[in-house]
Amino acid sequence: QKEVEQNSGPLSVPEGAIASLNCTYSDRGSQSFFWYRQYSGKSPELIMSIYSNGDKEDGRFTAQLNKASQYVSLLIRDSQPSDSATYLCAVLLSGTYKYIFGTGTRLKVLA
Amino acid sequence: NAGVTQTPKFQVLKTGQSMTLQCAQDMNHNSMYWYRQDPGMGLRLIYYSASEGTTDKGEVPNGYNVSRLNKREFSLRLESAAPSQTSVYFCASSPGTGGANYGYTFGSGTRLTVV
């Protein structure tokens, strides 16, 4: 079992819709979770972090964490074509300094 | 404010050649990391340095060595390049000492091809 799993996609949504991206992780002791956006040919860019169960909102982005079920999700409201990118989920493994990444979900927002 | 600077941006090596990828950050971050990114494999941790003076292996350390030269600089060396090391390499830094709850700032990457 991979430590961090994401559906590779592509996930296609129409402009203005809500995009929902999901991530599951295997380390039950993990406490810190991150979402990165990566445009093609560019480096990843941190967009959200979440540490507590529940929702965390930042503009059009909402991160959701459920530690009991070991999943993290990212919602993008009012999706724009400029949101088309690969979204990477990252987890800080408990008791280590290691951040482990999922393979990413490619999002395509259709104009 | 440069953030994390990686050099070179592109490199082609012949099998068996050696080279060093350079990384420097100007954010006074404690932790620095080297990742490689391959299609379908995601970002995989090669080595990391939780703080100045320490280095540790990640998921895929074989064929690589690192040096944390000072707080700013963290280099990655390929002693004898192999085609399997063809990849995009990213350096990243984080404010906290290792396990603190911070995300990364990434460099722009080095695209390495080994022929």
Relative strand content of chain B: over 45%
Helix tally of chain B equals 0
The H-and-E topology of chain B, N to C, reads as EEEEEEEEEEE
Q: Mean pLDDT score of chain A, rounded?
A: 93
Descriptive overview:
The complex is a heterodimer of chains A (111) and B (115). Chain A is built from no helices and eleven strands. Chain A has 111 residues and is mainly beta. In chain A, the strands form two sheets. In chain A, strands 2, 4, 5, 9, 10 and 11 form a six-stranded mixed beta sheet that branches. A five-stranded antiparallel beta sheet of chain A has the order 1-3-8-7-6, with no helix packed on it. The N and C termini of chain A lie far apart (37 Å). In chain A, 38% of the residues are buried. The mean pLDDT of chain A is 93. Chain B is mainly β. Chain B contains no helices and eleven strands. In chain B, the strands form two sheets. In chain B, strands 2, 4, 5, 6, 9, 10 and 11 form a seven-stranded mixed beta sheet that branches. In chain B, strand 7 and strand 8 (74-78) form a beta hairpin. The mean pLDDT of chain B is 91.
Main traits of this protein?
heterodimer, A: 111 residues, mainly beta, 6-stranded mixed beta sheet, 5-stranded antiparallel beta sheet, 0% helix, globular, B: 115 residues, 7-stranded mixed beta sheet, 11 strands, 50% strand
Short overview:
With 111 residues, chain A is an all-beta fold.
Secondary-structure topology with pairs:
The complex is a heterodimer of chains A (111) and B (115).
Chain A: E1 4-6, E2 11-14, E3 19-25, E4 32-38, E5 45-50, E6 54-58, E7 61-66, E8 71-76, E9 85-92, E10 99-101, E11 105-110
Parallel strand pairs in A: 2-11
Antiparallel strand pairs in A: 1-3, 3-8, 4-5, 4-9, 6-7, 7-8, 9-10, 9-11
Chain B: E1 4-7, E2 10-13, E3 19-25, E4 31-38, E5 42-49, E6 56-57, E7 64-68, E8 74-78, E9 87-94, E10 105-106, E11 110-114
Parallel strand pairs in B: 2-11
Antiparallel strand pairs in B: 1-3, 3-8, 4-5, 4-9, 5-6, 7-8, 9-10, 9-11
